[in-house]
Specification:
It is built from 35 helices and 26 strands. The chain has 1012 residues and is of the alpha/beta class. It is globular and about 110 Å long. α8 packs parallel to α9, α11 packs across α21 and α22 packs across α24. It folds into five domains: 91 residues, no CATH class; 118 residues, no CATH class; 329 residues, 3-Layer(aba) Sandwich (Rossmann fold), CATH 3.40.50.970; 217 residues, 3-Layer(aba) Sandwich (Rossmann fold), CATH 3.40.50.12470; 131 residues, 3-Layer(aba) Sandwich (Rossmann fold). β22, α32 and β23 form a beta-alpha-beta unit.
Length: 1012
């Protein structure tokens, strides 16, 4: 107290406060000695507290110290304690170089040394340097320890493609030698290796760090920008005994590893010449997955959606999902399918299982999504399916439904869709609240050495972009694998973020069982042949520990082999493959009790049209406070005028389709690039407050108090990933309208894997229906090659209707065509037809993908309008809109009948009007191209018996619909009449980049079309 009063006196005497600390340190021995406490200087920590302040601060701190010494900074604690005991109060700090980025600043070090280190002795520079060095070593192990972890079961490769030991991990580089190894150092708060101990000898510190970070587990996590998350991981890796397992847990691992190994052995014995993409060399994948499932189930998860490549799929289906073994063995029998479709190879199929998890005694749903050989294509599909399940369950935090993705090392590093999918993980409308990724790291890509297949140190480096922790683990250390799997499941449940397990292993038999890997990897496979399987190694370990006996090991093997033999005997009694047993998400109750050829009504009452139209055309309810853009005000007024006039444009027609479905309880989700506003500024489904950030109003979410949810969300600038996501979303619930829109139609090129392998052929291969809608802006507007064509010809080429077959003209002709086709391709010209087409997706008694070539200029074209009369009850989608002008009144006098599709219709009609040829030329629009409307085309051709028939299109001759419609016209006309082509000549590019050239080509097209 006397010391504090002396300081107060000094300041009150007029010493400038900003100079007080330096003055005090210089003059204290002669001026400020107190006769009662014999204290001299304040410590260096005084300077920031005294600058610009008063001595009252010191008095308050002194009083606080008297009450509780731990309530003040450690340096003040040492000062006050030394002062009271008659010791030296102030100690001059040593001169140190600027610390590196990995070192702990001196101010952070002092409290870790504690007051006792400062009491009664001077601290020299080496003591401080050595403590800083120990902290730097600990941090270096946490950051870089994974580089020297023993991860390769074969002992020949470095997982990071680098054999060098980072210099930060060599203790001698910190000026330590053997004499320092038994010195005791206080542990910082950034490590948990001490357990309950506060200090350890340097030798023990290094030993524990090696065990945590450099044995069979290597972890990358220190790049994560959250201290809480880093400490969470450190605690689970560094705490002494954290990996210890009890005898029961070890026996469970052995049993699971035995089943995984036994399954592959059984298949190899029974079907030695079959490709099965077995799991030999990475059998630990099965216990790993089951551990993630066990832990996640324990933490509340009820459903897990999984995606994986072909390697190990059969084993996962058998031993993770517990799919009946006889169904798996039936796939090897060469039987015909009992269901419609072409089927697929056995290691592409999915499944859906509900079963009891015996470890947690809780029910769990497991789904493995079917996927093609296009590696990683399934990733976004799984995420979309997971997101949908979470949505329908009301699981807004992802506590009940989660996703698990398996990857190969080469594919994880090489396939761009991995990056696209990763970048969806934190987006509000796409997150699944954390995915557990398991990389089956074969250390080889088919035959390509990883040193020639990736530029990154690890195959998993792409995961760093989303701050996902990455656990590298040696696949031949079962207990280490189980440990990281538990951590991964807990991480996902705690932080709801992605996590990666890099399971480093090898392939015992090459890319597949018939492949010869010695051609290209002789050294690796010589080592593999001398390497014991994981099961043998672990069994020997448990035998040596006395956990199991030899008879127990053999008994587990024999029991599982007997189970397989009994399942094979049952499989031999099957006569057909039932692909319905392989659906990854069955739509329970959707197909039952329905007439498969009866379509619901798509027209609606006018009152509903008016209500939706007015709500969609009105400003927010609190318009006086919610400031919208002036341009939006004009748009809303224009829409309201259309509603008053019983007319709709494209945006209004689309909104009425969505709104009417929402009224009927159908969830609508519109996703893609800039869909909220619309690429061409026509939609405006989200209104933004012009003065308040993030304040928005969504008209279609406020139509009815009990309506279904409407989700409209701008996506990341991804086609492959987001289209796959929406496909997965659509597969979960048939009673939802899920739509993906491209910014421009041909941007869908980069999502071709999803389109080819899943949309066009998914039902045929996997009996997997989807009603997903793709909106692809399409039309030659003079905007250059990449903003013109949605590549209509590619979609038509993949259509499965036979060009040479004219179906029977029955009453249910149209719906039967839809039932039998693989998908629907349309190019609408009226908002009313778009309205019906979208509603028909839900009205159908089945689900088919729908691809719509949407317009650009027609969004505002004055003639591209529809009346309410075309949308009310009793109306429906028109597959063809026939000529309805003057030519239709005198069909015998028509000289040319033009069929077309899309925007070019309006160009053709204008040209005929300008030339006064409305009575001579009839123009009919084919709105639905696939399935081809044979019956209506036939009617229209018969109506104009004297007319030359032509197909007109704005696309080049080798593009667009011509090559698709030509043979179908020939089938329709039965050789009695010809159909000619009108349009641009062939070209390599979809469009010219010159506006002048575009107009010239259009003029030539119209001249040819109107030439009689």
């Amino acid at each position: 107290m006397h010391r504090a009063k002396t300081l107060v006196t000094a300041i009150s005497a007029g010493i400038p406060s900003q100079k007080f600390a330096s003055w005090l340190i210089k003059n204290s021995p002669a001026v400020l000695q107190c006769s009662q406490c014999r204290a001299y200087n304040v410590p260096a920590a005084a300077e920031p507290f005294l600058n610009g302040s008063s001595g009252q601060y010191v008095e308050d701190m002194y009083n606080a110290w008297l009450a509780d010494p731990s309530s003040v900074h450690a340096s003040w604690d040492a000062f006050f304690r030394n002062s009271q005991s008659g010791g030296q109060g102030y100690i001059s700090p040593p001169s140190l170089a600027t610390p590196s980025r990995n070192e702990v600043p001196l101010g952070a070090l002092i409290p870790s040394l504690g007051g006792s280190a400062l009491a009664g002795q001077g601290i020299n520079e080496k003591i401080i340097d050595d403590h800083l060095a120990v902290q730097a070593i600990i941090r270096s192990y946490q950051i870089r320890g994974h580089h020297i972890a023993n991860l390769d079961p074969l002992g020949i490769n470095s997982a990071d493609l680098d054999d060098q030991t980072p210099q930060e991990l060599i203790y001698k580089n910190y000026n330590f030698d053997e004499n320092d190894m038994d010195r005791v150092f206080k542990l910082p708060s950034t490590t948990f290796i001490g357990g309950g101990e506060k200090s350890l000898p340097l030798r023990e510190i290094l030993r524990r760090l090696e065990l945590s970070y450099c044995r069979h587990i290597g972890v990358e996590f220190m790049f994560i920008n959250s201290l809480e998350q880093c400490n969470w991981i450190r605690q689970r890796l560094e705490s002494p005994g954290c990996m210890d397992l009890g005898p029961d847990q070890k026996r469970l691992i052995l049993a699971r590893l035995t089943r995984a190994t036994g399954f592959e052995s059984f298949l190899a014995r029974k079907w030695s010449s079959e490709k099965r993409f077995g799991l030999e060399g990475c059998e630990m994948l099965i216990p790993a997955m089951k551990t993630v499932i066990d832990k996640s189930t324990e933490l509340g998860v009820e459903s897990i959606v999984m995606g994986m490549p072909h390697r190990g799929r059969l084993n996962v289906l058998a031993n993770v999902c517990r799919k009946p073994l006889y169904q798996l063995f039936t796939q090897f029998a060469g039987l015909e399918a009992a269901d419609d479709g072409s089927g697929d190879v056995k290691y592409h199929l999915g499944t859906y299982i509900e079963r009891l998890n015996r470890v947690t005694n809780k029910n769990i749903r497991l789904a493995v999504v079917a996927n093609p050989s296009h590696l990683e294509t399934v990733d976004p599909v799984v995420e979309g399916k997971t997101r949908a399940e979470q949505f329908y369950r009301g699981d807004g935090e992802g506590k009940k439904v989660m996703s698990m993705l398996l990857h190969g090392d080469a594919a994880f590093a090489g396939q761009g869709v991995v990056f696209e999918t990763m970048h969806l993980s934190e987006l509000p409308d796409y997150t699944t609240h954390g995915t557990v990724h398991i990389v089956v790291n074969n250390q080889i890509g088919f035959t390509t050495d990883p040193r020639f297949s990736r530029s990154s140190p690890y195959c998993t480096d792409v995961a760093r972009v989303v701050n996902a922790p990455i656990f590298h683990v040696n696949g031949d250390d079962p207990e280490s694998v189980i440990h990281v799997c538990k951590i991964a499941a807990e991480w996902r449940a705690t932080f709801h973020k992605d996590v990666v397990i890099d399971l480093v292993c090898y392939r015992r038999y090459g890319h597949n069982e018939l492949d010869e890997p010695m051609f290209t990897q002789p050294l690796m496979y010589r080592k593999i042949r001398s390497t014991k399987p994981s099961l043998d190694k672990y069994a020997e370990q448990l035998l040596s520990e006395g956990v199991v006996t030899e008879s127990e090991v053999q008994d587990v093997k024999a029991k599982y082999d007997k189970i397989c033999e009994e399942a094979l005997e049952r499989a031999r009694q099957e006569t057909h493959i039932k692909y319905k047993d392989w659906i990854d998400s069955p739509w329970s109750g959707f197909f039952e009790g329905k007439d498969p050829l009866k379509v619901g009504k798509t027209g609606i009452v006018e009152d509903t049209l008016v209500h939706i139209g007015k709500r969609f055309s009105s400003p927010p309810p609190n318009a006086a406070e919610f400031k919208i853009h002036k341009g939006i005000e004009r748009i809303l007024r224009s829409r309201m005028e259309m509603v008053d006039n019983r007319t709709v444009d494209w945006a209004l027609g689309e909104a009425m389709a969505f709104g009417s479905l929402l009224k009927e309880g159908i969830h609508v989700r519109l996703s893609g690039q800039d869909v909220e506003r619309g690429t061409f500024s026509h939609r405006h489904h989200v209104l933004h407050h012009q003065a308040v950030d993030k304040a928005t109003y969504r008209p279609l979410c406020n139509l009815y108090p009990d309506q279904a949810p409407y989700t409209v969300c701008n996506s990341s600038l991804s086609e492959y990933g987001v289209l796959g996501f929406e496909l997965g979303y659509s597969m979960t619930n048939p009673n939802a309208l899920v739509i993906w829109e491209a910014q421009f139609g041909d941007f869908a090129n980069t999502a071709q894997c999803i389109i080819d392998q899943l949309l066009a052929s998914g039902q045929s291969k996997w009996v997997r229906q989807t009603g997903l809608v793709m909106l692809l802006p399409h039309g030659m507007e003079g905007q250059g090659p990449e903003h013109s064509s949605a590549r209509l010809e590619r979609f038509l080429q993949m259509s499965s209707d036979d060009p040479d077959y004219f179906p029977p003209e029955t009453e249910d002709f149209a719906v039967r065509q839809l039932h039998d086709i693989n998908w629907i391709i349309a190019n609408c010209t009226t908002p009313a037809n778009m309205f019906h087409l979208l509603r028909r997706q839900i009205a159908l008694p089945f689900r088919k993908p729908l691809v719509i070539m949407t317009p650009k200029s027609l969004l505002r074209h004055p003639e591209a309008r529809s009346s309410f009369d075309d949308m009310v009850e009793g109306t429906e989608f028109r597959r063809i809109i026939p000529e309805e002008g003057p030519a239709s009144q005198n069909p015998d006098g028509v000289k040319k009948l033009l069929f077309c599709s899309g925007k070019v219709y309006f160009d053709l009609v204008k040209a005929t009007r300008d030339l006064g040829l409305e009575n001579k030329i009839a123009v009919s629009r084919v709105e639905q191209l696939t399935p081809f409307p044979f019956d209506l085309v036939k009617q229209e051709c018969n109506k104009y018996p004297n007319a030359e028939i032509a197909w007109a299109q704005e696309e080049h001759k080798n593009q667009g619909a011509w090559t698709y419609v030509k043979p179908r016209f020939e089938t329709t006309l039965s050789g009695q009449r010809d159909v000619i082509y009108v349009g641009r000549p062939v070209a390599a590019s979809t469009a010219t980049g010159s506006k002048a050239q575009h107009l010239k080509e259009l003029k030539n097209l119209l001249d040819d079309a109107t030439r009689l």
